[in-house]
Every structure is written in C-alpha cells, then in structure tokens.
Amino acid sequence: MFPIHRPRRLRSHPQLRRMVCENLLTASDLIYPLFAVPGEGIAKEVKSMPGVYQLSVDKIVEDAKEVYDLGIPAIILFGIPDVKDGDATGAWHDCGIVQKATAAVKAAVPDLVVIVDTCLCEYTSHGHCGYLLSGDLTGRVLNDPTLELLKKTAVSQAAAGADIIAPSGMMDGFVGAIRAGLDEAGYQDVPILSYAAKYASAYYGPFRDAAESAPQFGDRRTYQMDPGNAREALKEIELDIAEGADMLMVKPALAYMDIIWRVKEATNLPVAAYNVSGEYSMVKAAALNGWIDEQRVVLETLTGFKRAGADLILTYHAKDAARWLQG
Ligand code: PBG
Ligand code: ZN
C-alpha cells in the first residue's frame, strides 16, 4: 500500500520508462497494403484515403523498395483489374494484375514478403466475394462453388511468387480448400494467413473506393460476421486452425480489441490485426484539420493493438509509423 508502493517511481525517467515498457512497437510488426492497377506510371490518390494510391506495377515496385528500406518486412497486395465478370477471371488468371505485381516485386525486392489477398470481390462484376445465383439481388454468395474459384486464385498467386496467401472472403471451408489446392499444386510450404474473424463493417468503406469493390447490391452480412458476436469469432478461428491456417487475422481492429485479445488467448498461432481503411481515414481527416497529433495518435493506436495481443498489424500508416519509429 501507499506510501510504500509508489508506481510513479518507475515513470520518473525516460530510460527507466523504456526499461519497463511492456509492449514495444517496431517496424517488423507492420504490413503495408498496396493497390495495383493496370497501366504504367500511374499513382492515383484515393479520395477518402489521403496518402494512399492506386499504383501501376512499376510504381508498386518503387513503393516496395521504400517499404523494405524502412524495415517493414511485408506488403499485402490488392488488385483492381481492367475487366470484372461473373467468374472473377481477373482473380485467377496467370496474367492478372496481382499476379503481375507479385512477380515484379519478387524480382525487384526478393527479400520483401509478399502477401496476397485472396478474394473475388475486386474481380466480380457485382462486387461480392464469390459466385451468385443469376438474378440474386441479395448477395447470398454460393459457398461451395466459390471454394473452387478461391483454390484456383490461390494457386495462381503462389505460382506468381506470393509468399503468403491471405483469404478474406469468409466462406465456410475456405482455408481447407485453399490448403488442399496449394498442396496438390506443390505449394506445401506457402503459408495461409486467414482473415479468420472478419466482421461486416462500415469501416471498410474507403477500401471499397480504393479497390473499386463495393457490392453493386445487397451487403456482405451473409458471409461476414455480425459485430455483436464474440464467441462466434472463437468458433471461426477454431475451424480455420483445424483446416490448416498458419496465422489468424482479426478485422477490423479498433472496435474489436476484445476479439484480438480473445483470439490471442485461445491460440498459439500468430495473430494479425487489420487496422482498416475507415480507421485510417478518420485519423487522417482529424489530422488534416489539425484536431489531433497524427504521429502520437497513430503510434498509440498501433501500440494498443500489440498490447491487445496482435503479433502483426496491417496498416496504411505503416510507412509513416516506421519513419517515426526510426526518428
Ligand atoms: C476483400 C477485402 C476487404 C478488405 C480487405 N479485403 C473489403 C471488404 O470485405 O469489403 C477491407 C480492408 C480495409 O477496409 O482496409 N474481401
Ligand atoms: Zn472479398
């Protein structure tokens, strides 16, 4: 009891605070998302995400080098194809935009880990994450036929050189199907980072501007999780672990800190948190208005994810954060 105990003693000096710091954020915790578009010399800023660009492959390679030089170990690639159709052809085609970007980055920066988002919503004409019955206007994606497309997509991404496959569509059995597909094709050593607990979230709005992947009708609530549910997240991760997931993701991060914590407690696999587009845009908007100290808010938020149990953080702030951590 006070006055014997005085917790302020250990806060009295900067070096002492460093010594007793429980969670230290470093650049090696971060993963930087990039959006690839066809063409050359293109860097088109996403309106709702200041500082985030749709980039042609040559520009992606430049950014990848910068990311690597900042000590960030990995990027995650999303693609915006020329043409969208009902079969999501652009997702699994050998000459797809993400396949091209992956191969180019691996050729230029071989030591940078390339994670590829494995989903169909950027490639389907209706913007849903899988097959729909023709005439369906509710967005009730057909689960099992979609698994075949996801398998094909993952194999083509691995063939292009992807180091990690990250399925994000919340289809039942998608980790098992992709694991089987990768193994059959000889990619036993390519790990799967499953978007295991992904909620149907309004925070994805700006991403859908960036990836041009907003559903044309309906919503994603028949496959992404209800924000009110926590135990269901544990069920989802249990299934993904059984199906062979190597790493698990919780998404979004900020409104789901409790889920990050519970997942971390429930598993020994590495846990990733996705600091999603809407979380980024809110900080950017407030910072541009001069209402918050961007650097301190970002570093505090990212440290919070670590404290909650995240081993890895996907964030659009990654490059800035790495710079601030150096400085
Ligand atoms: C694709 C996908 C989405 C995000 C990552 N992968 C969008 C969605 O599910 O609608 C969102 C990422 C972000 O908001 O930053 N399924
Ligand atoms: Zn999707």
Write the layout of secondary structure elements.
Blueprint: H1 14-19, E1 30-37, E2 43-46, E3 49-56, H2 57-69, E4 74-79, H3 89-92, H4 97-108, E5 113-118, H5 143-159, E6 164-167, H6 174-184, E7 193-198, H7 205-211, H8 231-242, E8 247-251, H9 257-266, E9 271-275, H10 277-288, H11 294-308, E10 312-315, H12 318-326
Parallel strand pairs: 1-3, 1-4, 1-10, 4-5, 5-6, 7-8, 8-9, 9-10
Antiparallel strand pairs: 2-3
Descriptive report:
This protein has 327 residues and is α/β, with parallel strands linked by helices. The protein has one domain: TIM Barrel, CATH 3.20.20. 39% of the residues lie in helices and 17% in strands. It contains 12 helices and 10 strands. Strands 1, 2, 3, 4, 5, 6, 7, 8, 9 and 10 form a 10-stranded mixed beta sheet that branches. Helix 9 links the parallel strand 8 and strand 9. Helix 2 packs across helix 4 and helix 5 packs across helix 6. The longest helix is centred in the middle third of the chain and has 17 residues. The relative contact order is 0.14. The model has no long low-confidence stretch (mean pLDDT 97). The site of ligand PBG has 12 residues, from helix 7.
Give the key terms.
327 residues, alpha/beta, 17% strand, TIM Barrel, binds ligand PBG, binds zinc ion, 10 strands, single chain
